[in-house]
Design a protein that fits this description.
15% of the residues are buried. The chain has 151 residues and is of the alpha+beta class. The chain is globular, with a radius of gyration of 18 Å. Strands 4-3-2-1-7-6-5-8 form an 8-stranded mixed sheet, sandwiched between helices. It has 3 helices and 8 strands, in the order H-E-E-E-E-E-H-E-E-H-E. This is DUF2550 domain-containing protein.
Length: 151
């Protein structure tokens, strides 16, 4: 009898986690979230990707893990610290791991190199967001960092 109750509790916890993940994903998508994968450690075999959704809020792109029931951000990319670099072709196991149609772009967040994998449309949106002038600056010439740069 004790094993049945333990199994039932574990099943209930699993179902609640799945529901929490589905609700969070739905809320992010409805509020303008985009699918994005990211990684900091750029292994040659294409491993290390984290799957999630990103949401633009003012001067930050907040990244949330797809398979976490917690509503906490996994990473925050700030517009004034993020610099996009070159695109690169998928390598190793990436064509099998990343969503179909993903484009990988190298970038630097402050001093941390990383890569983002997004759809073509999401990269266009990211570039537009980076190039947009925050209201307080008044001019693109007053931006000190961030934006687009080749490296």
């Amino acid at each position: 009898m004790g094993a049945e109750i333990t199994g039932l509790v574990l099943l209930l916890v699993l179902v609640l986690c799945i529901v929490a993940i589905a609700v969070r994903r739905s809320l992010l998508t409805k509020s303008g979230g985009v699918d994005v994968c990211w990684r900091r450690l750029m292994a040659a075999d294409g491993s290390g990707w984290i799957f999630g959704q990103g949401r633009y809020r003012g001067g930050a792109l907040t990244l949330y893990r797809s398979f976490s029931p917690l509503p906490l951000a996994s990473r925050i990319l700030r517009r004034d610290r993020l610099v996009l670099g070159d695109r690169r072709p998928l390598t190793g196991t990436e064509p099998d791991l990343l969503p179909v149609g993903s484009v990988v772009v190298r970038c630097i967040d402050g001093s941390t190199p990383m890569e983002l994998a997004l759809s073509e449309e999401a990269i266009t949106g990211l570039r537009s967001w980076l190039e947009s002038v925050p209201p307080a600056t008044g001019s693109l010439h007053h931006r000190h960092s961030g934006g687009l740069r080749e490296f």
